[in-house]
Structures are given as C-alpha cells and as structure tokens.
Amino acid sequence: MKGFAMKKIGETGWVEKPIPKLGPLDALVRPTAVSPCTSDVHTVWAGAIGDRHDMILGHEAVGIVEDVGELVHDFKPGDRVVVPAITPDWGSLEAQGGFAMHSGGMLAGWKFSNFKDGVFTEFFHVNDADANMAHLPDSIDDASAVMLCDMMPTGFHGAELADVEFGDSVLVIGIGPVGLMAIAGAGLKGASRIFAVGSRPKCIEIAKEYGAEQIINYKNGEISEQVLRLTEGKGVDRVIVAGGNNDTFIPAVKALKPGGVIGNVNYLGEGEFVRIPRTEWGCGMAHKQIHSGLMPGGRLRMEKLMSLIEAGRIDPSKIVTHRFCGFEKIEDALMLMKNKPADLIKPVVFIK
Questions:
Q1: Which pLDDT value is given to residue 37?
Q2: Which residues of the chain have pLDDT under 50?
Q3: In whole angstroms, how far apart are CA 8 and each of 46, 85, 111, 333?
Q4: Tens digits of per-residue pLDDT, 102-119?
Q5: What is the pLDDT of residue 48?
Q6: Residue 247's pLDDT is what?
Q7: Predicted local distance difference test score (pLDDT) of residue 109
C-alpha cells in the first residue's frame, strides 16, 4: 500500500509498505476522508516526539471497514466508521485507572503517527476495534465526521480540564480548530462570557458563531492586561490554552482569578520548559490550578459527540475551510497546514 510519511525530521514523502496484518481484535479501514493536523507539522518539522523514519503520518480519518479480526463482534466489512486519534489498549492497567490515553506509557494511547503508521494511507490498522471505532450514521457527512477524530474531542477536553461550570467566564487562548471547538465546548458546559484570543479574520468569524463574546488580539497588547480591563480587574474563572508556545502560561496565569483552573490541550512541540509567573501564581499558593492532558479516545466518546451533531447542538463542519479531492492531495493539504494562510482553519482530503 502507498502512504504519505515522515521520512525523517524535516522531510516527508510517499512510501510503499505492506498492508497491516490483523490480530483477532483488530480492524483494517480504508479511509474516505482524512485531515492533517498542526501536530503532524510539529512531528515532522520540529521533531516534537523525536525522529521517525518512513512513518506514515496522520491521525484523523473516517472510512470503510475493509476487514476485521475473528474476535471483533460489532463491526464488519463495509461498515462506515469514525476512528478517534487516540486508540488506547482498553485492557491496560492505565485504562483501568481512568487514564486510557496513557495505556502502555505516557501518551501511548496516541498510536497513529507516533508508535505506528498513521492514516494517510490506503489502509490503516485499528487496535481493539470494538472499543476504538464507532459506527458513522448517514446523517453525518465525512467533513463533520473527520472533525470528530481530534479537533472536537480535544477542544471539548480543554473545557473539561478547565472544569467549566454554569456562569463561568472563560478565556480561550488560540482560536485555531481546537480553540474554536473549545469555545463551543465551553458554551455547551454553561460558560456565561467567553473571551477568545486570536487575530485571523476567518477564525474570529467562526469564534463569534460558536459563542465568543469578545475577541482579544494579542497584537494589540499583553493578553492578560486586555482581559483584566474587560473584567474590571477581576480576571476570568477559567482559561483554556489551545495555542501559543511555552510562554503562554504566563498570560493564562495572570488572567486567572484565584481559585480558577487552566485547562491545557496545546501541543507544545519545542523547548525544554514552560514558564509560570511566580508572583501572579501567588508564590505557588493562589489555588490557580493547571490541568493538562491528551484527549480521551474510544468509541463511547465518539458516540456521545456524534449525538450532539445529530441533535443540532454543534456543527463542526464550520471549521472546514479547504477541501481537496483525491488521495494524492494529502501532501498539498499537509503543506497548507504547515504554511497556515490567513483564510485557513482546517483542510479535509476526500478519498473515494
């Protein structure tokens, strides 16, 4: 089979590999739509998870089941499915402890384009298929469905990590696709005021559609100072970090009320340390908590998020700005994600 791969740090290209072999609990899926992610960019060009050689990229795909192992009960060839970016080993001790995304070690539930070949290929392997795939109803198109793999669950996890409650004021730093989903998630969890940090016009437009009350342009001054002016010096109850760099916790901590919570879902792809402002963190005693985590995976979460789409509570297709047709367009879509033109939020490649 053919796949688009990370050849080494800083280099990509097409490779030929054998079709994956299936164990009794596994499935083989033929993708019908895929989407490149900023984390693919970090993986290749920043070497964020270390060097990888001829590793097929991609972790966002919907598709058709091609084959299943003998112990797979709920899926059969021909089924239309969505597969989350995180596919844990559900029998692991980490899963039993409530952190399935780290099954087998830190971040080890993130297998695609990390520990094994990803989804930018003609066929991809899914471990623990009954627990890691979800049936995709005809009512949800591929553009919306592929946003279920990573963008929507990761953004929503930001709202979960920040413990957003009814009536909370929330600051979302970064309004790329994950940040936009975090805005929508915070709204669904009951946020009363949502402030969003960003500057690209298309992202701002969708942020407002998802419920952002006020846009804070980081080019116009220190983020935390703008937040404090808008909140009469009080700050916000919750912060969701969905973009930025290793210094982004500085304005996040400064803008947060004592007793507040920061939820971080940003993939920090470079550097050795993050910085936290000592004084504004109350010398470590302000009860300003930082929760940071990888999105949960699994079938149940996919089914619950799909129910929100089917009920009309959220339309994730709004963040799809660029559409490509044809397997060979995967490279173009990835380079678009790398270069990030002003009108880009998220590209999707349709493969038929």
A1: 94
A2: none
A3: 11, 22, 18, 19
A4: 999 999 999 999 999 999
A5: 87
A6: 96
A7: 97
pTM of the model: 0.96
CA proximity to 149, closest of 319, 305, 311? 305
One-letter identity of residue 206: I
